[in-house]
Amino acid sequence: MIAMDLVTLAQQQPTVPGTGNVRDWILDNIVPLLLLTVALLLLWLGGGKGDNAGVMRRLGGVIVALAIIGLAVTTDAGANIGQWLAGLFVGG
């Protein structure tokens, strides 16, 4: 009986663990938390000193970074963007 169970287990296809759940968890929890942290730091560091122009300059960089993250996450172009960025440094 045990030998038949072992043979049956040995014949089954192995399951490959995926990263879909981890990716979804990161997108649902970590990214909004990081965005909130960046927003609070921008307001606290720049707004408290009255440097509103500095806050807006930094906010422009944050918006560009969010656009890149959104493009990589919502489309399947993340691998292509990564290869393009690597090509800037490596060449080719």
**Cα distance spanning the termini:** 59 Å
Largest sheet geometry: none
Shape: elongated
What percentage of residues falls in helices of 4 or more residues?
over 70%
> Low-confidence stretches at least 5 residues in length (pLDDT < 50)?
none
Q: Give the DSSP E fraction (strand runs of 2 or more residues).
A: under 5%
Please give a structural write-up.
It is a single chain. This protein is mainly alpha-helical. It folds into two domains: about 30 residues; about 45 residues, no CATH class. About 80% of the residues lie in helices and about 0% in strands. The chain contains four helices and no strands. Helix 2 runs antiparallel to helix 3. The longest helix has 28 residues. The mean pLDDT is about 75. Keywords: Membrane, Transmembrane, Transmembrane helix.
Tell me the layout of helices and strands:
Blueprint: H1 2-11, H2 20-47, H3 52-74, H4 78-90
Helix pairs in contact: 2-3
